[in-house]
Amino acid sequence: MAVETVTMDQIVSLSRRRGFVFPSSEIYGGLGSTYDYGHYGVLLKNNIRQRWFEAMVLERDDIVALDSAVILHPRVWEASGHVEGFTDPLVDCRTCKLRFRADKLEDSQCGRKPSKHPGEFSECDLTEPRQFNLMFQTTVGPVEDSGSRAYLRPETAQGIFINFKNVLQLARRRPPFGIAQIGRSFRNEITPGNFLFRVREFEQMEMEFFVPPPDSDRWYRYWIDERLGWYLRYGLRRSRLRVREHGPEERSHYSRGTSDIEYEYPIGWSELEGVANRGDFDLTRHTEYSTTKLEYVGPDGERYVPHVIEPAVSLERIIVAMLVDAYDEEVVGERERTVLRLHPEIAPVTAAILPLIAKDEGMVSKARTLYEELRKRQSVEYDDNGAIGRRYRRQDEIGTPWAFTIDEQTLSDDTVTVRDRDSLAQERLPIGGVRAWLEDALERDWKTPKGD
Ligand code: GAP
Q1: Cis omega (within 30 of 0) on the bond before 118?
Q2: Are 161 and 283 in contact (CB under 8 A)?
Q3: Which of 66, 279, 359, 434 sits a CA distance of 20 to 30 A from 72?
Q4: Which one, of 344, 343, 340, 345, lies nearest residue 327 by Cα?
């Protein structure tokens, strides 16, 4: 029986216990809503990043990669509209001195106990809302004045637009074509929270797809389907995903159409990824502000400003969705186990190599040889610490799909046992065939046993 409801507390506690994610700066008392990634968190992130990159760049002929700087010319953010308009409404409470997003009061907690929403105690004294810009400011160079002011990028997208000409010329592309980028973005969120869901520093994966203007709606729909398909390919349940189209009042200043791919997080249905039709807003604005023409000119003199379709997501939101979707608890042989039913190509460790008896030199030697062979291509873990049942459970908790056990029989016939994380089925196979078996297993379609 799969666990029906997974809480954010279960995910936070597992992430911490198994070293996926730690609250940052803990020995100094922590820095609210900032996190550091431990070993398994790094491996998980690498896999998600790589799967995104494969689908968006390596498996396609029409998208190239880019890695632009975090700190760009400050005029970039004037042209993009962020200096003027990248704001949230902020209210201060004169009594408790806390700050809240005026449009999210019902999601915020007043500092007083018992907890209520801001404004609900008679002592609450909220100011009128004012606009607060979410960009982090910094200064470039040794002199701190208004001329040295710069910003940490709040999205990776603008780095793509300002490189449009470089890429277009070098790649000799004609629309439709795209530029993809993965990198850190920074937002001084007023109310970060819900674990990694809303943080101030996150890793965005964005792709700007430049298309002939008459085709923009078709490509907008195409990218919604494509991105939804990616989540299904990597095992998220269909019933926990939906597409929600924004109404005109909800759209960003640049958008002609936006749809959120939403996931049913423990906090309710919320944005996992956004797909926007940005029209020609960005290229036109950067042309105006930089006086460099950003347009497509065809070999026969045809010229136009392409429209842009943008799928944008953060690794953090995918991590939370994948952990929630994968988390399961069950009782096996009167023992409880916690298991992360992650897609095998997402799981931090692909296989564990376990000598049954850690002191048996024959078993250890065969296990080490297998481990050395597999680690050249896969993320594998050698574990000889503790009873075999405990080792299985440790691997279950970090989502390792397969465990290979080297036992007494291995010494006589060179076969090993492979145990499947989800079904718990065990089969024997020749030790020499493990590498090929694993490669085949990774190629197979995978569906979560938690259902649709
Ligand atoms: N370039 C468009 C753009 O940045 P956005 O909707 O503001 O649009 C895109 O952000 C995606 O970035 C979101 O769908 C979400 O996945 C992620 N994201 C945005 N703010 C975030 C935050 N504070 N913490 C974690 N992820 C965030």
Answers
A1: no
A2: yes
A3: 279
A4: 340
Look up residue 245 and give its two tokens.
């189209």
Give residue-wise pLDDT tens across range 189-238. 999 999 999 999 999 999 999 999 999 999 999 999 999 999 999 999 99
Residue having the nearest C-alpha atom to atom 26 of ligand 1? 314
- Cα–Cα distance between 290 and 30 in angstroms, integer? 42
pTM of the model: 0.95
Tokens 């550091």 belong to residue: 36
Cα-flanking dihedrals φ and ψ of residue 76, to 5°?
-55, -40
Cα 313 to averaged position of ligand 1 atoms, centre (Å) = 6
User: By C-alpha distance, which of 269, 231, 268 is closest to 55?
Assistant: 231
Residues forming beta bridges with residue 339, ordered by sequence position: 328
**CA–CA dist 441, 200 (Å, integer):** 38
Pairing of strands 351-355, 380-382: parallel
- Enter the DSSP assignment of 350: S
Ligand 1 mean position, distance from CA 259 (Å)? 13
Look at the block and give the residue holding tokens 């992130």: 45
DSSP letters, 8-29, are HHHHHHHHHHTTSEEETTGGGT
- Strand 307-314 relative to strand 201-211: parallel, antiparallel, unpaired? antiparallel
12 Cβ contact list (under 8 Å, min separation 6): 21, 195
Residue tagged 């990159």 (tokens): 53
Which of 314, 315, 316, 319 most suits a substitution to test ligand 1, by most atoms within 8 Å of the C-beta? 314
Nearest Cα neighbor of 413 from 428, 435, 434 is: 428
Query: How do residues 347-376 score in pLDDT, each as one tens digit?
Result: 999 999 999 999 999 999 999 999 999 999
* Residue 240 C-alpha from the chain's centroid: 16
Give the residue from 169, 158, 186 showing the smallest Cα distance to 286: 158
